[in-house]
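Lab meeting prep.
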Amino acid sequence: MVEDKRLHKIPGHNDVKWDNRNADKFRGDVKETGIGFMGWDYDTATEQFKVYLHYDQLYYWKYAEVSKLGKGFVDGEFWGTQCPKCGDKFFPPRVNCWNLNCNLARSVWTELRQEGVVHTFTVAGWSGKSSLKRLPFVLAYVIVDGCKTAIANELRGLDPWDAEFGMPVKVVWKPKNERQGTVTDWHFEPADDWKPGPMNPEKERIKELCQPVIEWVKTMK
């Protein structure tokens, strides 16, 4: 049982009675978004970070050995791991190095710069109910601070057809009191000095495909 005094509730869910967690108390969230992040908990003694969400019933997951990642999101920090042998960095973090020459060496935590480059991306013309009004949007896999792995999140602040492979991006956070310890706490935006390249046939094709989606979203209430 999680004590109320240690549980950080998400705004809008303050009426939840944590001593009586039955599904009926969350039906409104499920009906509205399909899934609702309800709160998070960090145990300072064990350094374990836990996230609560509701999807027909209450679930939770533990970050376990990578709890520093979830706690870092709450604090506005990016924590990856680095191999002490080869120096490779990983974000999302990996407990062991994946370089075959390192024999699964135990990695160590390292704070990362909140910037990166787009490895690949897609323009979404359809989504789940909670994201429909944001269509069309860009989902990008970004290599953060020179890491060997990429992480996916929304790329905002540009027209979808202007997204480019290799473009520099920065991290933009939600206000701290709205963070949940998940990747929804932040998103990517173009770096301050980035300028979109000129229109070309591929960009024109993507723009044309986006137009009916944009018009359809305008009709949504």
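Slide two material, second protein:
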Amino acid sequence: MQTSNFAHVIFQNVAKSYLPNAPLECHYTLTHYIHPHPKDWVGIFKVWMDTARDYFTFLWSPMPENYVVESTYNCVVSFRGYYLPNDDGEFYQFCYVTNKGEPKGASTPFQFRTSSPVDELLTLEDEGHSDMLVVTTKAGLLELKIEKAMKEKEELVKITSVLEKEVTQLRQYVESLEEKLKQEREQSDQLISEREEMFKASERFKTESEDVNRKSKEMSTKITQLEDDIMTVTQKAIAKETELDSLKDKTKKVMLEKEQLECQKDLLQNSSNQEDILFLKQQLRKLEDQHQASRQEVSLMSKELSDAVNKRDKTMSDLHTARLETDSVKNQLANALAELRIRDVQQKSSTFLKKDQGVENTRVEQELRKEVEDLKLRLQMAADHYRDKFKECQKLQKQVVKLTEQLKVAETQQKERELFDNAEVAAVIHMQQCAVPVNPFSSEVSSELDIREQVRQMSSEISEKIENNRKCKQMLAEEKARCSAYADDVAKMELKGKEQLKVNDSIKRQLIAMEDQYKVQSAEKDREICDLSHSIETL
């Protein structure tokens, strides 16, 4: 599609008439159809002009600055008053002519006329919407328009000042929010660095734990080797003791043979009393029965004591497991609180991004609340488990006290029996020394020696029994001390459980307060962001 040559340059704001001998400004627009040249010019022609040489006056067209091909530019030229035509009643027009003498644009016609009083008058409609016409001068109309424009300008200046203040306040608020965001990010970075340090510390502790376990295994191996050495030495000692006992038996046999010879010599001179021997045999049987009953009683009490020790060990194991579970729950609760703080920081830093993340934040809050409730339930279960273990420990302690009393009674009875047995043994020995056997045969002498041997064995068994009772008493005292320590541990654990419950309540209150504060802050941030967005949109 081709365009007219006169449409390449468009003249703007051309009046119907101009004053002669007064400066005149000509405004025009160079379209993208024309390529300006320094020798292009703008002239004033009469409407009936035939060629480009019929101009009245002209001015060179200025070149646009930073000219770009196929771009539009606005230009202006000023004609001096003494070069312009006089008031001759002719119609003139502006025309843009290229360096080749080709016209590329022409304005609407206009005249050069001197002003008259009638020309300065204007007729306007009444602002009261009446049918009357108001006659006024152009200067008065211009003054009214200028006054109105000045008022509008003042109002615009005031509005601009208010808006600038609001923009300044908004910028300050945005800067404060950015500062808070920066602080939150610094806190988040600090938490991340602390978490990394804790991870490194845990790795270091893990390495140390592995070293300790390795050393423990080495020590266990050394202990096993030492136990084997002790067992070997013990076996050698037992062998030596066996040899020593064999030598003692040989010595006793020699002594018995000597006593037999002496008894045979005495039998040739004296008579014996068979009734005393029968009485001694009955006393020996009675002592054997009592000894067997005491042995069974001690065995039964040892079994009961062993059962009590096993129950105590099981209870200690359960208590240790409960402690581990409590520590695990504490760690989980601490991790949950740390995660809650981190997510709170992340939430504060992400409130400026999108509002549709509220659903995700609500879900995270629900998950955290659920996790906290689960931890509280587990802590409550651990506290109940502590109470059950404490009651069981009290029952075991009562059983140990009861067994201790029974053992004391058994020891008292045993001491009385030992005194009685020692008295009877002394009487038997005295009667054996004073007795005069009547049977001259060697079989009776052997029976008397057997009775003496049985008395000696019973004496050794009684001493062993006394030693065993002493050991049982010592074990019972140690067990009592352990039970007391266990009771103290249980009491401490109960106090720790109560303190933990208090801490849990405090943590629960803190979580509730943090949730409320978080909700309030989230609502405030959302409201502030909405206000800020509205203000920015308004600006």
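Talking points for slide two:
The chain is about 70% helix and 10% strand.
Residues 470 and 502 are 48 Å apart (CA to CA).
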